[in-house]
Amino acid sequence: MELLISLTINGLATGMLIFLLAAGLTLIFGLMDVLNFAHGGLFVWGAYTGVFTYAWSNSFLVGIIVAILTGLVLGFITEKLIIKPVYGNHVQQILITLGFMLVLQEMIKVVFGPNGVPVKVPSYLAGSWQIGDLTIIKYRIFIIVVGFALFGVLYFILNRTKIGLVVRAGVMNREMTQALGINIKRVFLIVFMCGAALAALGGMLMAPYSGVVYAEMGMEYAILGFIVVVIGGMGSFQGSLLAAILVGLAGSFMAYYVPFLSVAVNMILMASVLIFRPQGLFTVAKG
Amino acid sequence: MIKQPLLLSKVNVVYAIVVGVMAVLPFVLDSRTMTILLTQFCIFAILAMSYDILLGYTGIISFGHAMFFGIGAYTTAIMLSDYGPSIGIFAVSIVVGIVLSAIISVISGALTLRLKSHFYAMFTLAISGLFLVLAEKWRTVTKGNDGFTFRAPELFRERLYFYFLVLICLVVVFILLKRIVASPFGKVLVAIRENEQRTRSLGYKTLGYKIIASVIAGAVASLAGSLYAISLRFVNTSVMTMDITLDALMMTIIGGVGTLIGPIIGAGVIEFAQHYLSGLAREYPIFERWIIFFGILYILAVIFFPRGIVGTVSLRYHEWKLKKGQKTKASVKLREKEIQR
């Protein structure tokens, strides 16, 4: 029982981090049909800038704020410089965002050095609770709480506010939303920046969890993000949460029970979704 | 679509001269480094051409090309070290690599090629990531990240002979692929790139065509991988990394998509630039990150020169011909397009 609980907590924590990455990806895709391969680059930039300010200021919170700001700024730059010139051309979009990903990743090595940087958990989140035989690491609970809180906030914004209404309408039918007099490109810019900020935040939260940041982690987690987006259904926000948790749990349980399958489990999940339900678990009614 | 110039024989003479020059080059330069560099160039030219079959001719984006390259490299390396370094084993290992690559292409193609192009890009990215992890973890076979050395067949231990083998492979692959893209099958691929729905409504089963294109690309990439392994006589997980895919991608984009000569030129540009930039890195450390320059160049190329070097040059050439009033097949086409506008 203790084992099951701690595996579940591990899986949920990983799932939440992937969710932060995938939420932006899926909305960006749903809104403008843009699959942003540079998303992992935003993730790793958030992690590095956050970690360095955290080390410099000794305040985890400042690190988080800086990571979010980095995400917003980089999101703005990416949308304006990289996505906009090739808007509407899928092939060019995929190619160019991957190229930008490469540049972002290499820039990390130039600015912060090529080696990994160790990160400590802030003192007030370090350590663990002991309940009977069960050890619960505080930082994992922290991630899960933050993840669910962010999901709640985003869910509220998407479903209860005007901008959320516009975003949902845009995902459903872009042309019609435009015809109703809404500047969809500006909405898209906002969503893109928020998505980038979420990814950057995810990177920053990831850093103490894995204990080290390195330039290639962007690509590794971006792949998980893509898998989640495919499983959850492209454009579906709720779907990305569910799929992220699924991928996180599958990863943590497989790593314990069937280690040799743990690498492949996400691929198997994705392949079976592609075979039986290529539109993903949740579908957005495209009208 | 970029048409080849009409006077094919003239072009063929130019090709023959280029191949001749390349065959003589190692004797003229007479340096080991240059021979190795030329060998690398030929191998990556083969890889880039195979990539262009997907990207340039069929309009499919694959981010997992390194996987096929890696499969070829590992198959050859493992078979040569297990069964001894003979030419026969080498030949068999190439075939085995090709077959393995073909099987994986068929599976991933059947799963994702019927969906939007994003899916194939994502799926290949993910599955090649899986193969990279597999190569790292399956230590008993691959020796993990450290890799292993093996002995190449006697004949190819001489750098020069191996260079000739690679050059012959490049020429053969070029001719084969040229035949394929010029065939009715190749025309269907181009039609799919231009407008898949219309191609389907003309009665072509586009999924099958796309899968075959991906099988061809995977097989040729695997051949390039086998040759690469021999050229290094060493293999480790770096043959499976994203860098290989990105190299192929950049060579194709910078050289010119939708042509076969473009990726070869792109491979030349990038291989030689890489060589000289890493030489510069000894003096200016910033050049150690030469990949940034290529990344930026690549982004600019995608935005401003989507046709790449070859496409842009041939466009300018035909425009110039048009201005002079000379008629070639392509310039007539250009004129027709202008009139339509």
From TrEMBL, chain A:
InterPro entries: ABC_transp_permease, BCAA_transport_permease. It comes from the Bacteria. Its main location: membrane. The keyword Methyltransferase does not apply. It is a multi-pass membrane protein. It is found in: Cell membrane. The chain crosses the membrane at residues 12-30, 37-56, 62-82, 94-117, 137-158, 187-209, 221-249, 256-276. The keyword Transport applies. Keywords: Amino-acid transport, Cell membrane, Membrane, Transmembrane, Transmembrane helix, Transport. Belongs to the binding-protein-dependent transport system permease family. LivHM subfamily. This is Branched-chain amino acid ABC transporter permease. It comes from Solibacillus merdavium.
Automatic annotation (TrEMBL), chain B:
It is a multi-pass membrane protein. It is found in: Cell membrane. This is Branched-chain amino acid ABC transporter permease. Pfam families: BPD_transp_2. The chain crosses the membrane at residues 12-29, 36-54, 60-80, 87-111, 117-135, 160-177, 211-236, 248-270, 290-315. Keywords: Cell membrane, Membrane, Transmembrane, Transmembrane helix. InterPro entries: ABC_transp_permease, LivM-like. The keyword Cell cycle does not apply.
